[in-house]
Fold MYB binding protein 1a.
Amino acid sequence: IDSQDVAELKSPGEVTQSGALPADRHGLLQHSREFLDFFWDIAKPQQETRLEATEKLLEYLRTRPQGSEMKYALKRLITGLGVGRETARPCYSLALAQLLQSFEDIPLCSILQQIQEKYDLRQVKKATMRPALFGNLFGVLALFQSGRLVKDQEALMKSVKLLQVLALHYNHLQEQPQKALVDILSEVPEAMLQEILPKVLKGDLNMTLSSPERLELFLLAQQKVPAKLENMMGSVNLFSDENVPRLVNVLRMAATAAKKERKLPPVALGLLRLALKEDKFPQFWKEVVEQGLLKKQSWPASYLCFRLLGVALPLLSKEQLQMVMRGDLIRHYGEHMVTAKPPNQFRFGPEMDKYVGTFLEGCQDDPERQLAVLVAFSSVTNQGLPVVPTVWRVVQFLSPPAVQGYVAWLQDMFLQPNLDSLVDFSTTNQKKAQDASLHVPERAVSRLRKWLIHRLVSIVDNTHLEKEDALVEQVARFCLFHSFFVTKKPTSQVPETKQQFSFPLESQSREVVSNAFFSLLQTLSTHFKQAPGQTQRGQSWAYRLVQWADKLLNHSRSVTTVLPFTTQQHQAWDRMLQTLRDLEAHSTEARAAAFQHLLLLVGIHLFKSPAESCDLLDDIQTCIKKSLGEKTRRSRTKAINSQEPPWVEVLVEILLALLAQPSHLMRQVARSVFGHICSHLTPHALQLILDVLNPETSQDEDENVVVTDDSDEKQLENAEDKSDDSEDNKNAESEDESEEEEESEEEDRDGDVDQGFREQLMAVLQAGKALGGADSEDEEELGDEAMMALDQSLASLFAEQKLRIQARRDEKNKLQKEKMLRRDFQIRVLDLIEVLVTKQPENPLVLQLLQPLLRIIRRSMRTSSCQQEQELLHKTARIFTHHLCRARRYCHDLGDLVETLHTQVEQLVQQASRQADSSVALYHFNASLYLLRVLKGSSGEGCAPETQKKPRAGTDTSPKPKGPQTASCLDWNLVTPVYSSALSSFLTKRNSPLTVPMFLSLFSRHPVLCKSLLPILVQHVAGPARPRHQACLLLQKTLSMRELRACFEDPEWKQLIGQILAKVSENLRALGHAQTKAEHQKELSSLELLNTLFRSVLHEKLTLDLTGLLGVLQGQQQSLQQSLRQGEHSTGSSRLYDLYWQAMKVLGVQRPKLEKKDTKEVPSAVQSPMSMKRKKKGFLPETKKRKKRKSEDVAQEEGAKPTATAEGQPPSTGKKKKRKRAKDKAPAQSQVNGTPAVKRPAPDTSTLDPSTPAKTPKLQKKHQKPSQVNGATPVSPVEPAVKKKHQKALLKKEVSGKLPQSALPRKKARLSLASRSPSLFQSMARKKKVQTLRFTISSSKK
């Protein structure tokens, strides 16, 4: 801790050693702890804590404004201004400012005097100079932040002088005093500023231009008191030729100082406003900014210029904006946007977006300036490609006139690109490129058009931008026309024909426009929904565009399609329009709307791919007519004509063909249409879908549906951009990286070398030697011609090998790409499956989805390495689990599928048992449970006759379902053996994929089946370790199910509990003898099951003979305690011990308790005298200790004679003894459920004799020594209930300290748990009250 911190921690009397009266010091020491804590909280780094502490301090001082607390608070805060912790100084300064603001009667001059006395710069030592300087600085800032400094002229003048003194210590304070002075003077009234200005500002202009702070002070005076400044310095022209270099240097210094803050220095903004005020903005911008700051490019200066541009946007006129947005600065900004990469370099784009957004939002009433700025930023291009993104969020702030003007500019630039109006630039790497094709105008036009069309679509996509339908229609018609139509001659009826291209539209650019149009169509179909996908005229956007396309087709003299239509395609188009008009008659049906959307989408695709779409249109129209003309009764298996497939199968094939296209709009439309036709689905139509999802067939055979991909086209579109990006990134690549790439290529090439290539290489080398005509091995004997021939042979050989390697790589990439496309297609086809199980869960065809979905899950779990496989797996699992197995609705009309489903249940359970992964087995097991649910919920009328006769003919003794279950199609005789073998496999097989939760789910859903499987569990309870543990766990969870109890009659349930108790009793005979972890786990599971059985017995009030079980448990107590003492399997020993005594408590045997003194005597016996001496330090003195009630010889006598009575003890007459004993019972009670801290000796075996009189644990505890109490085992509490007379007599004996000499003859222990019969537990409860009273009386005599 620094010396200042030490001073801060001291009391006020110790801090102020000079002139403090003793009375004041005595008064300061009386301050409360709460008051002193305020100052600690003020210096904490958490802002909320600081503010809360300051508020509480002010509230505290308001109640005592004249007391010593105020003086102490001021001294403490002033002391905190110069503490060694730099983070605490501003906190104390802010607290002092708020204090001075709240108490205006405190004079500022006195506070400033105290600060100067505390931190006197003339007397301070060199080591404490820095804290003293900061103490003065933060003191002045506190006076200024209080808001009272500018009102007190005397304090203001003293503060200004102090800041001038502090400004001399630049090494410590940097420019902070000058900044504070400027901030203070900016708030001072003009009259006072005129008086202060000569003292703070020199008349020398060179001094003014030496630092940003002095120049900022000059600009402040120029703004507030220009007359006084002119009297001091005369007429000053800051933007003269001789002052411009010095201004540039000052701005560079300001930019470097504000580098970390990332904000515009105030001096730059002041110069900008002065230039605008003096009408010298062009000179300032060109000479100072563009020719000065940008001449020697440094990133701090560049960022200052960018921020200056952003701040200047609202201040400039339209002409000044045009000048600024076409200069060197905006070109430099564009180059920065292209070359800067965000991870490693700071990118100014997001900050500039904020400046532009603020400007556009602030000038909503001036659309011309909005349009000028937006067009200017869109005109900054890198070889034709604008640097701003196509999706620019600032567009949302445009006013409707500005949006209209901007859309018109985008369309005009698309049709007639004016490259001269662009601020185009090339990066350094692009300038070095020797390829002349990169600098031709056609390439720039292509890049510009691609950006323009996407910007048009993004304007419609922007949901925050207010747009009219006319503007949306204008953009949609523009994209549609230039995607699929060409102008022959202009006509007034089609406005788009009047717009001619200055550069012809290439096929690649037209493809970009086509893709943008379908993206726009998707946006219009999803986001723009006044009614569902409709405009104000009540028609969907797609329908309106189709009508407009039909209008263009009718103007064949002026307009023609890019791909000319044949007569058949024209007829298909006309039939489509007629079908659309027919569908309008069924507009109220949702199915008609879905068909209309599908027809419109395929109709528009007729312009993109006429041959394919023409066939699809004919098939779709046929299917629509058949579906709408069909009667309400549907037929799944029979078609109208045996030669023609059902219309639903044709439509499913069409939907699969549409899903093969990578279009999200197609995917949505196919999903919507399938949702309306899935009720008419046939088995063959469903099989068409499942064939796509079958992993085996999709890998080995080609699909009927060809999966298309537009990635090649997108790669062609983006090839130039990627090449440019790669060129721009060349400067970031090092030579080491290129060498590593070459090495990796060489390694790949070496790995692809085969033996044939080696033989060819050897043959060429041998031929080269033969050509040389020499048999020796010296290379010098080969001539020049021979060497040239050999080089040519080797070059051709390696070229062929390189082509072979590239061909193999291309083939590998092609296969990988086809695999990815196939997975994407399967993911899209899963949409149809999801629609089917969601909208038609009662359809019997849903039952055919189980095995295909399980095959996908099995395969994906084995090969879920790539992201697509994981996506396919997750989607399949979600559909299978949530939409199929957990669906509330399911099929109730099985027909002739009952026997098939029973067979399928058996197959699924067998498949689950054969899986290697439990997660995969869980899906199969859940599928079997789903089929059981379907069979159980189906009515008996649809079941086959033989399935209902089998239970009567069979010899199985499995219980028959009663009540409404007899009408179900579920045959328990067929299902029970399946799950019985699965349960046996689970209990016997070591690495079984089946788990306990699976069978618990089965038992909870089908308790009748659980009743049939319980004998298997009971059989394995006394088996080997693992089956026993699993069986006990299953029984423990199953016996508590209410559904299972309802399936049993009372005698059956009692018999079952008795059988399980017998098995558990066999297990407990080896209790405490566990040698391995598995055996220990076996004991734990047996005891847990026993406690579960006891809970069931108590709840059902059953009458069972538990004498044998009690004897078994008592017989194993000694071995259990011995194993616990030895610490075997200590992790679960305490748990085993607790379970044992939990069971014994139910049988009426209480757990022995330990006295508190026992835990202290054993450790104390091993302590050395030295440790006793060390421990005695800090204890109470002997005079303060309570004297012992017993002497040491009496304690030794009791330890030597544990059977001695308490007759010689005097009776207790006080109440403190009772309270002490009551407190002593608390630690003893803590030993009931835990393990004692000391090792206990072996128990006295004599207490296990049944003839031993029954004593309560509390009485044994009083009349035995600790070793006997800890180790003794209480006898069975099976004595019958006695009369009150006998209890009183027994009470008298216990009071006198004599134990009964004989006990009642022991009878056969028959534990009756019925409420009406004489209950042992009721008598035990009554005895417990008497024993408690007996214990209290006997202990009071002690």
